[in-house]
Design goal:
Layout: H1 3-13, E1 15-16, E2 19-20, H2 24-36, H3 39-55, H4 62-68, H5 73-79, H6 83-100, H7 112-129, H8 133-140, H9 145-167, H10 180-197, H11 203-221
Antiparallel strand pairs: 1-2
């Protein structure tokens, strides 16, 4: 839900889904805190992420987030407008973490197999580190336009970067089974949804998923056999 829509619903009902009405001065103060961040807001977002991860979106409330952050409900509203805004801020953080995993130094000098293995492992690891959050973000994107805007933008950016990387490789080093744009889209769906389902799985299950996805990616991309590093 967008901030303006959330505020409008709050005004009509007085209180809806953790949304409360505020004065213009309070809105300006909250916007200033959002722009400058600060330890208290970061504590609230960490508490929100933990609540969403443990309880799910529906069961999480402003009261529970405030309690986990060891603060009060009024303090929550001094920094965040609603539970929806908290979820959106958590989504921003998760998206930043996922994007950072694909920024590999010296990528031009590395063999394709090494790049695929490193980025696959890092990306899946970031999904695992966020527990159930990526699965929830993927689900919420279907009903919340603001979450969808963040999530879709990240997915498109990462897929475009991967496609450009594959398209720029020496044709002698890879033999993709389908055109890079379609291949990247399929591999992206596979790792995002596959890893998200294993957010709470045992370490050995997660490791098996990573190894399986690396093999799948190498075969789909058509990495030349003699350029693959040892498992």
């Amino acid at each position: 839900m967008s901030a303006s829509r959330a505020s409008a619903e709050g005004r009509r009902g007085g209180h809806d889904n953790g949304v409360v009405t505020t004065s213009d001065a309070q809105e300006r103060a909250r916007a200033s805190r959002r722009e400058t961040s600060g330890p208290r807001r970061e504590e609230l977002l960490a508490a929100a992420a933990a609540c969403f991860d443990d309880l799910g979106y529906a069961a999480t409330t402003v009261e529970l987030i405030a309690a986990r952050a060891q603060t009060s409900r009024p303090t929550f509203y001094a920094y965040l407008r609603s539970k929806d805004e908290a979820f959106l801020a958590v989504t921003e953080q998760v998206c930043a973490q996922l994007e950072a995993t694909q920024q590999l130094d010296g990528i031009e000098s590395l063999p394709p197999a090494a790049v695929l293995r490193s980025t696959t492992r890092a990306f899946a690891g970031a999904i695992f580190a966020n527990g159930s959050l990526v699965a929830q973000i993927d689900s919420r994107a279907g009903v919340d336009p603001d979450v969808d805007a963040l999530w879709s933008t990240l997915r498109r950016r990462l897929e475009r970067r991967f496609t450009n990387y594959l398209s720029g490789l020496d044709p002698a080093t890879i033999d993709p089974c389908v055109a890079p744009p379609q291949l990247v889209s399929m591999l992206s769906d596979s790792i995002v949804r596959g890893a998200a389902r294993l957010g709470r799985a045992p370490d050995e299950v997660r490791e098996q998923f990573i190894n399986d996805h690396i093999r799948l990616t190498e075969r789909a991309v058509g990495v030349v056999a003699d350029s693959r590093p040892e498992p």
